[in-house]
Design a protein that fits this description.
CATH class of the largest domain: Alpha Beta
Number of helices: 8
Number of strands: 7
Oligomer: single chain
CATH topology of the largest domain: Rossmann fold
Shape: globular
Distance between the termini: 34 Å
Structural class: alpha/beta
CATH architecture of the largest domain: 3-Layer(aba) Sandwich
Largest sheet: 7 strands, parallel
Length: 257
């Protein structure tokens, strides 16, 4: 990357977002960190600076329409440009299709889909100016929808479609856009899910964590750092001809062609 390269990373307070911010700090001169949890964001910012990049923190809720304006304007005022946007934020409720309310559906879409959509649109002119890159994070449920994860699957499928639409415009405007589809990555959020799920299935948390990869047909859970490495490649000069793609990283869980 150039000496003045700037990346925005959402969901940067934990999990894949945090790992991505730290990985990009090796290649970019400045990382803008966005999430709701200020304390964890500040910890990520300190670690980013230790790696060697400057940082800026925005502790706000991307479900709010004005948040995109705040982040993009602040980034441009502080660093003068945007070279990469990585839309990682978004926790969607894992509630059964027949039990989920309209309000829960709306809330699930508000952050991961619409927050990313608004931020990408608001950053587009700056990304055009830099011939920049955008990545939107989807998830494996999009490729194998189940009733218990209907909102997760629908939202992630919508993100893949949205990324392809942005990519089509990006070909004209000089902006590279892709989506990434991770499988089962062990994050604090996933462990929290197992802590609730395991007792209901007469399992200890460790038994549940061991059982899942076997049932999914994979050797182990993924690591946030492994997804971060892929994301860093997608916004690197080496990947510039790769656009409009939906890239899976799931340990072989999805067997379809």
């Amino acid at each position: 990357m150039t000496a003045k390269s700037v990346a925005i990373v959402t969901g940067a307070s934990q999990g894949i977002g945090r790992a991505t911010a730290l990985r990009l700090a090796r290649d970019f001169s400045a990382i803008v960190l966005v999430a709701r949890d200020r304390d964890n964001l500040e910890r990520t910012a300190a670690d980013v600076q230790r790696v060697g990049a400057a940082s800026m923190v925005y502790a706000l809720d991307l479900r709010q329409p004005q948040a995109a304006e705040t982040v993009v304007k602040g980034t441009l005022d502080g660093f003068g440009g945007i070279d990469a946007l990585l839309n990682i934020a978004g926790a969607v409720p894992q509630i059964d299709l027949f039990e989920m309310t309209d309000e829960q559906w709306d809330d699930g879409m508000a952050l991961k889909l619409h927050g990313a959509r608004r931020l990408t649109i608001r950053a587009w002119e700056a990304l055009k100016a830099s011939n920049g890159s955008v990545v939107l994070l989807s998830g494996g449920a999009a490729l194998d929808p189940k009733p218990a994860f209907a909102a997760v699957a629908a939202t992630n499928a919508a993100i893949i479609a949205l990324a392809k639409a942005f990519a089509e415009q990006g070909i004209k405007d000089g902006v590279q856009v892709n989506s990434v589809v991770p499988g089962a990555v062990m994050t604090a959020r996933r462990r929290s899910f197992f802590e609730k799920w395991a007792p209901a299935h007469n399992l200890t948390v460790e038994e549940a964590i061991k059982k899942f990869p076997e049932e999914a047909g994979i050797s182990r859970f993924g690591k946030p750092e492994e997804v971060a490495d892929l994301l860093s490649y997608l916004v690197s000069p080496a990947a510039k001809w790769l656009t409009g793609a939906s890239v899976r990283i799931d340990g072989g869980e999805t067997k379809g062609i």
